[in-house]
Specification:
Helices cover about 10% and strands about 50% of the residues. The chain has about 450 residues and is mostly beta strands. Mean pLDDT is about 90; it is low at about 1-20 and about 375-380.
Amino acid sequence: MNKKLLLMLVFLGVLISKAQDIVLEKQLPEGFKIKRAFQIPNKTNNNLGLFFFNKKESKAFLFDNSMNEKSSIEFDAILNKYSSPLGGIVTNQNKFIFIVCNNTSDKFAVGEFDFNSKKAKFKGSEIELKKERFLQHFAVEGSFYILTINNRSSILNLYRFNNQGEHKKEVIDLGETNFRHWNNNIVPLTTLLYSPFGKALETPLQKINTKTPNSLEITASPSKMFIENNKLYLALESNRSVTQAITIDLDNFSKTVTTFNKPFIANVVNGRKSNSFIFDNKYFGVTGASDIVKMEIKDFDTREVLKTYEIKKGENIPFKNAAIYFEGTGLGNRSKQIDNTNRFLRNISRSEVGISVFNQNGNNVITLGSFKEGVSGFGIGYGPIAAVYSYTTTKSTFIKCKFDKNYNYLEGVVKSNVLDSLKKFVDENGKGSHEEFTKVSDGYLYGSFNKSLNKYVVRRF
């Protein structure tokens, strides 16, 4: 082997190893069974809170920026009554607020974890939903939100918790908006969320984190939620001709509804598939059929078309940066690559189309393709962990394309992203237990429970 090539391979091996270094291992007591685990970073000082919930008792640990344990808390289980911890936020250097709910997602309580006093306390039922349905939860800029919708209506409610655990309800009334179903009938917002094509969804509103890569199985959902620049975006895809996008400003709770025409393909009615993605104050729309796929990038505020790209039957794809990927069931949960535009288009016309955008090293990488439901279908989960396992129950076809900040096509190799690295790690080491994947200032932390050693292990990617 060429000496230069050998040195390069060794160097790459070192990089891969460092990308998966163990940063901490927490030994848990024998017999302690985790029901749910959370890792919550403090962006101010890079401390890390680890929380382990159990039916009988629960534990929490605080680590400094060198991953040395600073403090710990043991507390009685709250999960007998509130079986589902939703997540938490940092209040200051050593205090965390947690929100938990019951198994029907209609009662919520607030917990405070104080690592200074080493005590945890829970307030009673802070919120009890009546004639409302829980949709999603999320944390932004030191606040925690619960999003609900009134039954059979177009009225959304946002419960905002501050870093003291106090909450305020904001009502977003969209009753004057004409939401259009797949057949153009006017319906309430609940119909688009829960039955976009006449069939009930397991997850009515898919949460998308644009700061991490996302798989098509997640982004192809007909109802999606994005958060950017302290704004909440809901993209509703039930209608094949338009995307109905709701924007809620989280500073003042003002709302707007914008209708985007999806890319138009002439002489195609049946078999047309469409979807969209919201990123960087831009709307990415895609429409696909058996002989053409069309992608448009629009300014979100003006709806001006900034770029248009097409894939046509019998022609090479002019803006892909690698071969076409096929992935999922039937391939032994592996992927293979081919160059067959016609097959790519045929798969899109028979499946659900999706698009995902991710900023990588200053460039924008767009993943475009389709997936076919397997065991799970929509409602597959959230974030990179869900994406890692989604391809084991679905079949997907996709291309990766690299663009500059103005979405001009760039030639060259699309580098592996953190999702690719995580998939590779899981493939080689097996599925973990109680996994968490969290963005921190210098990368990503992947935590999982090693049952045989009774340890929770956190790796940096």
